[in-house]
Write a structure and sequence with these properties.
By secondary structure, this protein is α+β, with helices and mostly antiparallel strands. Helix content is 42%, strand content 24%. Residues 1-19 form the signal peptide.
Length: 205
């Protein structure tokens, strides 16, 4: 999701931001989360920023649906850009120095070597035995020892656009998935729960 390209437009609109509302809370949460981003790799910065947007918005899913028409139960590229624009524009006003820094990092070329995303990623190889369509697309992968691991498709990863309309073909096939673990607030449990987020997926030939 190309959140950072939207910041250029946001810079010209920040002065006409609406009155204080729930978006301020989401923007403040996204600012706090984004301040912890330490990678110098542009793709990693964009990915982690996108995760911060999602984490900040999650507790306000009902408000987003009712007030802004954003269906948080179906995050695709179009919805993600709308969400990024809504929160990103407010972030420009709430934490301008941070957003400027992130923009610069996202535009800088990679310096080579292994990126932070790859270095911190976990790898899972096994058969894709089920695909759940609940709040998000969830892949159930069975490893050779029989253990089933659930990984969520929440944001862009390489080749994800090509899979959007055809990921069902992966069912019962061997896949190798890279993922990172994030903690999301679960309102039913009243606590943060670890969630495995796909950062790369490769079907086995």
């Amino acid at each position: 999701m190309k959140y950072f390209t939207l910041f250029l437009l946001a810079l010209s609109l920040a002065g006409s931001a609406a009155a204080q509302d729930i978006v301020d809370k989401m923007a403040d949460a996204a600012c706090a989360c984004s301040s912890a981003i330490q990678s110098d790799d542009p793709e990693t910065v964009q990915m982690e920023f996108g995760m911060c947007i999602l984490k900040a918005a999650q507790p306000y899913a009902k408000v987003l649906q009712k007030k802004y028409g954003i269906d948080f139960t179906h995050i695709d590229q179009t919805t993600g850009e709308k969400l990024g624009r809504l929160i990103g524009m407010r972030m420009v006003a709430r934490c301008p120095d941070l957003t400027a820094k992130l923009m610069q990092q996202a535009e800088e070329p990679a310096t080579g070597g292994q990126t932070a995303a790859v270095a911190s990623a976990h790898t899972l190889t096994g058969k894709l035995v089920d695909i759940a369509h609940e709040q998000f697309v969830t892949f159930h992968v069975q490893s050779p020892d029989g253990k089933i691991t659930k990984v969520l498709w929440l944001s862009f990863f390489p080749n994800s656009n090509a899979l959007m309309n055809d990921y069902g073909r992966l069912l019962q096939k061997q896949v190798t998935i890279q993922y990172q673990e994030e903690e999301f607030y679960n309102p039913r449990l009243g606590e943060y729960t670890p969630t495995k987020i796909i950062t790369a997926l490769q079907p086995e030939d």
